[in-house]
Structure formats: structure tokens, C-alpha cells
Write the C-alpha cells for this entry.
Amino acid sequence: MQYPLTMRFKIFAIAPQISVTDVAGEEVCYVRQKLLRLKEAVAVFKTSAMKDQLCDIKADRIIDWSASYHFTDMSGETFGAVRRKGMRSIWKAHYEILDENDQHFATVSEENPMAKVFDSMLGEIPLVGLLTGYVFQPRYLVSGTSGTPMLRLEKQRGFLESRFVIHKLAELDPVEELRTLMSLLMMTLLERRRG
């Protein structure tokens, strides 16, 4: 993948959808969240044509509090998971990325929690909410177990569009890179719903 990657949300879609492109504009993956499910389920495709599925992301429980979201490839093999840390995520988003053996691989933490608070509060006010995308841009940092920064996710300024950019800060092997990207996609879907 050629960084930076750009994630775009389709605002006026019935089911939440995300398109991820690389710096050359080539599609990296396309995400479509499944509706009307008791447990969270997300299908990840290679392109927006939705012909070749890359993987599935499924929650391990119905209630979102400290749930784990497992990544399964099309052969049925699990290659990682992301888990939201319930109490730690109330004020500042905090997620753990797990490897295929459910061992801690990396951490995603919010760098500027006040941006999200103001963005969600002002976003509920008619007309003013349309402008919050220009003022408040939350940032998230992915760090390895040793504390080494790996990736950074930043919300970009936008009007009637949610757009995020992923910057690469360290080298990752292809499986680690895919696991981390799936974690950021799922975290973005969850945090977007929270505000």
C-alpha cells in the first residue's frame, strides 16, 4: 500500500460505507456495514464493485461495551482483532489490537480527546453542526507494544463528508499492516457512532 491512505464515508447511504484509497487514488478496500444484526458485522471488499471479499469483521457479543471484533479471511482463518477498552474509552478512545492468537499487538489511542467532545456537542446544533467538520479534527495514534508509533489516523476538514487520512510511521509486514488497517476501520465506525 502506498501511503497516505484516505478513508471516505458515504454520508447519505442507508448502511455505513467506507472507501479506502492510496496516494495514487487506487482503491485499497471498500467496507460495507451489515444492517439489522444483533452482533456487529462488517464485510470488507477489495473494491467498491463488491465482487472480491477481503475479510469479515464480527463482534464477539451483542453489547458494544469492551467487545472484541475479530478479522476473518475468506478461508475462515482469524488474523487478528480489535478490542475497545470500556472504562478507558469513556473519555479518551482506547483500543487494543490483537494478533491471530489474541495476544496484544498494538494500541490505538486518541491524541486530542477534546476535539471529539466539541465536535459531537456542536454537531447536534442545527446549522452550526454543518461547520464543525472545519474546526475539530480528532487524531488517533497506533503504537506497538514497545510504544513505537506505527500509524496515525487524522480526520480531515470537510463539508458534508467524513474523510480521514492514515499516515505510516513505521514499517509493518503485510499481515500486520492489514490487521492494523482493519482495526482502524472498525474503530472509525464505532467512534463515528459515538460522535
Remarks:
- The CA atoms of residues 82 and 97 lie 4 Å apart.
- The first helix runs from residue 113 to 123.
- DSSP finds three helices and twelve strands in the chain.
- The mean pLDDT is 84.
